[in-house]
Design a protein that fits this description.
The complex is a heterodimer of chains A (537) and B (377).
Chain A (H helix, E strand, L loop, with lengths): L4 H12 L2 H9 L2 H32 L5 H7 L8 H12 L4 H10 L15 H25 L3 H9 L4 H12 L1 H17 L2 H5 L5 H11 L3 H29 L17 H33 L2 H38 L6 H8 L6 H25 L13 H25 L4 H8 L4 H30 L2 H6 L7 H10 L7 H37 L1
Chain B lengths: L3 E10 L2 E11 L4 E5 L6 H9 L6 E8 L2 E5 L12 E4 L11 H6 L7 H14 L15 H13 L5 E5 L7 H17 L3 E6 L2 H7 L2 E6 L2 E6 L1 H6 L4 H6 L4 E8 L12 E6 L4 E4 L12 E6 L4 E3 L7 E9 L2 E8 L11 E5 L8 E2 L1 E3 L6 E3 H10 L1
Classes of the chains: A mainly alpha (537), B alpha+beta (377).
Chain lengths: 537, 377
């Protein structure tokens, strides 16, 4: 409950602030920001669905060459922070970039008037870059949905007169609707939360507006108001996501191992391969190799030590965040398991909502809450004639860790409660029947069984905390740099070359949860198969 | 012209031979049941006929209302062009479509009016009138099955395939549903092949039966024929036609045993058994150790006679007491176990009794055949 307080404080303060403020915002910048945000979201959703659904369809339902490699490669772009890709591609496709120079040289064009070239520093350019790294959400969820579809349904479609392609459109896709809904809303949440990419491309959205109004003009109440508007969007998306999830539960179906693959003609095979490899290359392989190239070309030992200092800051922050988040998640999950209170699911659900909150909004909420607290602490200190402690909450890493705990609670909750679900409920009862108390049964049975889930949750939060950017930018104490803020700073100064190593570290940290997620998915699929085999015999 | 004729069909999947040299013909309007132990290839055969699996040898000839479709390894016809309907074990109803839309799914190309007439007819026929706007998950198992039937019948298929159609139905309703569905198929003159592992379903639902093991069809015929004259130990054993009594041949009195009218005698733990080689169907065996199929009705209590069996198990059934008997001496070659027999007379466990065997048509197989089966299962 404590974790939800900052958000409530922010919303209340936004609602109670003077109405002039909204009027002013509405008359000046707000419509533009909202239009940009909505357009960006729409473009990204359409593009990610296009990329993700087609690639998932090709991987699951056709005999595409290199399926085993592509299956994995297509997930990797998720590890690429969009702002790094944005920087790298601007470098490549800009007027002064390698591609345009090469084109001008080849065709002897002199100036921009001689030819048309796609302008990457635009709203659509931002949408493309964001889509390239976010489409794996759609790909992963849709692929899983396709693989778990009941083969008999697809067979029924064929026998009732549909060709394989018609079957895909009329049966397979509609059946995957819940997965499409969930993945589209995830993508939308991430897009709404994106700050660095749009900032770099100078596209004004709500997130950049929050950042500018607070850090640029120091106008906390306007920033709060903007954050509340963004929060409203997020509420809407979450609502739809929950709806999609509830309809998914009705369509539970068993997987069947005898897949009927669509056999592609040579031309189709070529197109399919081009499509999938384009996504893998543009989303991961190309940017990653560009980064590696930069490291080899520009790295110096001085940069290395500078990065090391920020990396240590990142690690310190992530250690606190991961440990506290996991402890809270564990307490909540065990409370839910053993409590007989009918409202026992509430704490876990509320704390899981944090992940939907964009980092910028969360930062505003923290400032709105802990700023006044700090002021009153100092006032009390003056009253008691003690030395002023300064901004002990909002001016230290306390506020950062707090923000991380709120934001990443969902990840830890998910990992730990799914681990807990695998422990049969009869195990809760067995110790009591053997005369052993709850405390002993927790330490001797549940915690050892949960060991791998706890470790997994801890690592996932640790990695996410290492990567987090917007919240850190707004909340960090003076002169406190983390790996991601430093890389971002260098990107804004057009000097990523000096931070390429840091960027690679961020990507590598990002790869970890993806590999973990993918292999645990595979594990689940395997056990399901085994269970079915067992049931069949 | 039969509706479907399958000749020399073989299917190999990932180097495993699933079906080998299957031959089957079915006349228009007939219902045939494929039975066999699990893993014998019956579902594969169904999927091959439907076109989900390509055959590696042989051909399938389908009479689609006068148009003959021949499917060979060179000439594959995709499932949607075979005009075959299928009812799946889990019914495979589209969860995102209503009952009405599920039923009309296969006739979407027809005009709206034609679709509507067909829908109304089928809803009425299958007693689904009130359920047209429901979704599959709102229906009971029996209702779901009726929707699946309606959906399969809507495009007027030449042949209907049913994969374990009654396995998801509550045991108490099963018999009624079978009778209902059978009369429906007969009324519409639909040719159907269905798969089951339950022999009783074939007896009450099918016109013909085909017994399969290890990818082969062992015997085809009407249920009565197959029960009376099983052509192999496996068929008789799978259909659980009775128990097995070990017997040995006695060298017959100088008459060549294969001649018609000759008498052959056998030794058994229940005494001497004589048979006349009246019909050419009766086989002769080169080996001496044989088994005789004994059904419960072949056995009766024999008063005033030496005991030759011992009661090993008693259960109470609607036909009276059901006893399982063993021979008194368990060590010799003729010893038997688990002969079944019904009686109204109360006996007690381990009671020694005298029983008598009355059989006209002997069904005999070599003992060696039974061993191969016992080791393989």
């Amino acid at each position: 409950m404590l974790l939800a307080i900052p958000i409530i404080v922010m919303l209340v303060s936004a609602l109670t602030s003077s109405s002039d403020l909204y009027l002013h915002l509405w008359q000046s910048v707000l419509p533009n920001y909202i239009i940009n945000t909505v357009l960006l979201g729409a473009y990204v959703v359409v593009l990610t669905l296009f990329f993700g659904v087609i690639s998932a369809g090709l991987i699951v339902h056709t005999n595409i060459i290199g399926k085993k490699i592509l299956r994995w490669l297509l997930v990797l772009p998720l590890a690429m922070p969009a702002y790094i890709v944005a920087y790298l591609y601007t470098d490549l496709f800009d007027y002064a970039g390698f591609v345009q120079i090469a084109l001008r040289d080849t065709f002897h064009w002199q100036s921009p008037q001689d030819y048309w070239f796609f302008d990457i520093r635009s709203l659509f350019g931002a949408a493309c870059v964001i889509s390239l790294v976010l489409f794996p959400y759609v790909y992963l969820l849709t692929r899983t949905a396709f693989e778990q579809q009941n083969q008999n349904l697809l067979r029924a479609g064929r026998l009732l007169g549909l060709s394989p392609t018609q079957n895909f459109i009329k049966v397979i896709l509609p059946l995957a609707r819940p997965a499409l809904g969930i993945s589209a809303s995830l993508v939308l949440m991430e897009t709404l939360a994106d700050f660095a990419t749009v900032q770099y491309f100078a596209v004004n959205t709500l997130t950049t507006a929050i950042y500018d109004t607070w850090l640029g003009y120091g106008d906390l109440s306007s920033a709060n108001a903007l954050a509340s508007v963004l929060m409203l969007f997020i509420f809407i998306v979450v609502f739809f996501e929950q709806k999609a999830r509830s309809s998914q539960s009705q369509q539970k179906s068993m997987s069947n191992n005898q897949q009927q693959l669509i056999i592609l003609s040579t031309r189709q095979q070529f197109l399919a391969c081009t499509f999938c490899w384009f996504l893998a290359i543009a989303g991961f392989l190309l940017p990653f190799s560009l980064l590696i190239n930069m490291v080899f070309e520009y790295s110096t030992s001085e940069q290395f030590f500078k990065l090391l200092a920020s990396a240590l800051n990142s690690i310190e922050l992530a250690l606190y965040a991961a440990t506290i988040t996991v402890l809270i998640a564990l307490t909540l999950a065990l409370f839910q398991r053993f409590s007989y209170d009918i409202n026992k699911t509430w704490p876990l659900q509320i704390s899981s909502f944090g992940y939907a909150i964009p980092g910028t909004v969360l930062a505003m909420a923290m400032l709105a809450t802990f700023g006044p607290v700090d002021h009153s602490v100092n006032d009390i200190a003056i009253y008691l004639q003690l030395t002023e402690p300064g901004l002990i909450f909002s001016g230290t890493i306390f506020v950062l860790v707090f923000a991380f705990v709120v934001r990443f609670a969902a990840i830890a909750n998910g990992a730990i409660s799914s681990g807990l679900k695998q422990i049969p409920s009869s195990i809760d009862l067995a110790p009591a029947s053997l005369g052993v108390g709850l405390k002993t049964s927790l330490t001797k049975i549940h915690l050892p069984l949960l060991k791998s889930s706890i470790l997994g949750a801890w690592l996932l939060v640790f990695v996410e905390a290492m990567k987090e950017l917007p919240a850190v930018l707004l909340l960090r104490p003076f002169n406190f740099e983390t790996l991601s803020t430093q890389v971002y700073q260098l990107i804004s100064d057009e000097m990523l070359e000096q931070g390429a190593l840091g960027a690679i570290l961020i990507v590598l940290f990002g790869l970890f949860p993806i590999i973990w997620l993918n292999s645990s998915n595979e594990k689940i699929a395997k056990t399901q198969h085994r269970e079915q085999d067992f049931a069949a015999h | 012209m039969p509706l479907i004729s399958i000749s020399n069909l073989s299917v190999t999947l990932q180097k495993n031979t699933i079906l080998s040299d299957v031959n089957l013909t079915l006349a228009s309007g007939d219902i045939i049941g494929l039975v066999g132990p699990s893993g014998c290839g019956k579902t594969t055969l169904l999927n091959t006929i439907a076109g989900f699996i390509e055959q590696s040898q042989g051909q399938i000839q389908l009479n689609d209302f006068g148009v003959i479709n021949t499917i060979t390894t060179e000439q594959f016809i995709s499932p949607e062009r075979r005009n075959i309907g299928m009812i799946f074990q889990d019914y495979a109803l589209f969860p995102h479509l209503t009952v009405a839309k599920n039923i009309c799914f296969g006739i979407a190309k027809q005009s709206n009016a034609a679709q509507k007439t067909q829908l109304i007819t089928l809803l009425k026929l299958l007693k689904l009138d009130d359920l047209a706007d429901r979704y599959p998950h709102q229906l009971s198992g029996g209702q779901q099955q009726r929707v699946a039937i309606a959906r399969a019948l809507a495009p007027k298929p030449a042949l209907l395939l049913l994969d374990e159609p009654f396995s998801n139905i509550d045991a108490r309703l099963r018999n009624d549903l079978m009778i209902e569905l059978r009369s429906l198929l007969k009324e519409l003159k639909i040719t159907a092949i269905f798969v089951t592992h339950n022999k009783d379903e074939v007896f009450s639902f099918g016109d013909k039966i085909a017994v399969m093991t290890e990818g082969k069809i062992l015997q085809t015929g009407t249920p009565a024929e197959v029960c009376k004259n099983p052509n192999s130990f496996q068929v008789a054993d799978f259909l659980q036609l009775g128990a097995w009594l070990p017997i040995t041949t006695i060298e017959s009195n100088n008459l060549p045993s294969h001649e018609q009218g000759a008498t052959i005698s056998y030794h058994s733990a229940l005494g001497l058994i004589k048979s006349t080689l009246s019909s050419p169907k009766t086989k002769t065996f080169s080996e001496n150790k044989l088994v005789l199929l004994v059904k419960p009705q072949h056995l009766s209590l024999h008063a005033n006679h030496d005991a030759n069996a011992i009661v090993k198990n008693i259960t109470i059934t609607e036909q009276g007491y059901h006893y399982q008997l063993s021979s008194i001496c368990t060590q010799n070659d003729l010893a038997f176990t688990a002969l079944s027999f019904y009686s109204n007379q109360a006996l007690h466990l381990e009671q020694k009794i005298a029983i008598k065997l009355n059989i006209d048509d002997l069904v005999i197989f070599a003992m060696a055949d039974t061993h191969s089966l016992i080791t393989s299962t």
